[in-house]
Write a structure and sequence with these properties.
The chain is α/β, with parallel strands linked by helices and about 350 residues long. The chain is built from 12 helices and 15 strands. Strands 3, 4, 5, 6, 7, 14 and 15 form a 7-stranded mixed sheet that branches. A 6-stranded parallel sheet has the order 10-9-8-11-12-13, sandwiched between helices. The radius of gyration is 20 Å and the shape is globular.
Length: about 350
C-alpha cells in the first residue's frame, strides 16, 4: 500500500509501505476512505514531538470501511462505515472506566500516527476497534464525519467544556485555525454574549467572522478590544488554540479575575507562567488531551442536522495527492486553507 511516512524533522514521503495486519484479537483493519491532516502532524514534522519515531505512518483522523476484524471484536464488522477516533481506548483501565480515554493505561490514548502507524495511508490497523471506532449513521457523509475524528471533540472538550463556557459569557479565542473555528462552533452551543477572536492572518479572521465571531482583532489590539467589550473586566473564558508561548501568555493577559484559560494548542516550547501577576486573580488554567468522550453526542447532532462540520474543509484531494495536500495545509497564509480532506479514488 501507499502511506505518508515520517523520516525525521522536516522529512516526509508518500511511499510504499507494508500492508497492516491483525496483531491482536481486538484489532480491525480499516480501508481509509477519507483522511485529513492535523496541526499536530505539522508539529511532528517540525520536531516538536520527539516521541514519534522515524518511519512512522502519520495521521490520526479518518473515516473508512472495516475490511477485517479480530476474533474479539463484537461491535463492528467487515463492511461497516466507521469514524476512526484520534484517541484509542482499551475500555478497561482506570482512566477508560471514567471516559478519560486520552489517558488510557492499557495501550491506548493518542497512539495513531504517534506510537503506532496512523491513518494517512490506504489501510490502517486500528487497535481496540470496539471502543475506538464509531459506526456512522445512515446519511452522514464521510466528509462531515471526518471533522469529528479530532477537531470538533477537541475544541468542545478541551476548550469549551474544560473552560466552563456558560450562557452570557464573553469568550476570547486566540487563534483562528481549525481548532479555533471549531471552538467558535462549540462555544455557540452555550449562548455566550460575545465571542472575540484573535489572529494575525486576515483570511483567518474572515473565516472566524463567517463562523459567527462577534469581534475580530489582531494580537496587538486584543487587550484593548477585550477590555472595551467587558467594561475593563476581561474575558470570562479565554481559549488558546495555537500552541506557542506568545499566544499562551496573551491568554493570561486577556482573562478576567475569576476567569478561565483553557489551553488547547500543542506546545513545542516552554511558555512563561506569570504567577507574579496571576496568583492574586483567582484564575483557573486547564490543559488537556482530548478524550473523545463527546464523540457519540456530536455524531447524534451531526445526524440530526445540528452541526455542519463540512464547512471546515476548504481543499479536497485524492489520497495520492498527499504531498500536495501537506504543502497547502502547511502554508495557510498562501492557500487560505482551513482543513484539507483526501479521498480514496
Amino acid at each position: 500500500m501507499k502511506a505518508l511516512v515520517y523520516d525525521g524533522p522536516g522529512r516526509r514521503s508518500w511511499t510504499d509501505h507494508a500492508d497492516p495486519g491483525i496483531t491482536a484479537p481486538t484489532d480491525a483493519i480499516v480501508r481509509i476512505d477519507a483522511v485529513t491532516i492535523c496541526g499536530t502532524d505539522l508539529h511532528i514534522l517540525k520536531g516538536d514531538v520527539p516521541t514519534v519515531d522515524r518511519g512512522r505512518v502519520l495521521g490520526h483522523e479518518a473515516v473508512g470501511t472495516i475490511v477485517e476484524a479480530g476474533s474479539a471484536v463484537t461491535t463492528v464488522k467487515p463492511g461497516d462505515r466507521v469514524l476512526v477516533s484520534c484517541i484509542s481506548a482499551c475500555g478497561r483501565c482506570e482512566y477508560c472506566r471514567v471516559a478519560a480515554y486520552g489517558q488510557c493505561l492499557g495501550g491506548g490514548g493518542w497512539i495513531l500516527g504517534h506510537r503506532i502507524d496512523g491513518v494517512q495511508a490506504e489501510f490502517a490497523r486500528i487497535p481496540f476497534a470496539d471502543t475506538s471506532t464509531y459506526v456512522l449513521p445512515a446519511g452522514v457523509s464521510d466528509e462531515s464525519a471526518l471533522m469529528l475524528a479530532d477537531i470538533m471533540p477537541t475544541s468542545f472538550e478541551v476548550g469549551v467544556r474544560n473552560g466552563t463556557v456558560k450562557p452570557g459569557d464573553t469568550v476570547a479565542i486566540v487563534g483562528a485555525g481549525p481548532i479555533g473555528l471549531a471552538a467558535i462552533t462549540s462555544a455557540q452551543l452555550f449562548s455566550p454574549s460575545s465571542i472575540i477572536v484573535v489572529d494575525k492572518e486576515p483570511a483567518r479572521l474572515d473565516a472566524a467572522k463567517s463562523f459567527g465571531a462577534d469581534v475580530l482583532v489582531q494580537p496587538g489590539e486584543a487587550a484593548t478590544a477585550v477590555a472595551e467589550a467587558t467594561g475593563g473586566l476581561g474575558a470570562d473564558v479565554v481559549i488558546e488554540a495555537v500552541g506557542i508561548p506568545e499566544t499562551f501568555e496573551l491568554c493570561t493577559e486577556l482573562v478576567r479575575p475569576g476567569g478561565h484559560v483553557a489551553n488547547v494548542g500543542v506546545h513545542g516550547a516552554p511558555a512563561t507562567l506569570h504567577l507574579e501577576d496571576l496568583w492574586i486573580r483567582n484564575v483557573t488554567i486547564t490543559t488537556g488531551l482530548v478524550d473523545t468522550s463527546s464523540t457519540p453526542m456530536l455524531l447524534r447532532m451531526l445526524a440530526a442536522g445540528r452541526l455542519d462540520p463540512s464547512r471546515f474543509i476548504t481543499h479536497r484531494f485524492g489520497l495520492d495527492e498527499m504531498d500536495e495536500a501537506y504543502d497547502v495545509f502547511a502554508h495557510p497564509q498562501d492557500s487560505n486553507a482551513l482543513k484539507v480532506a483526501l479521498f480514496r479514488s
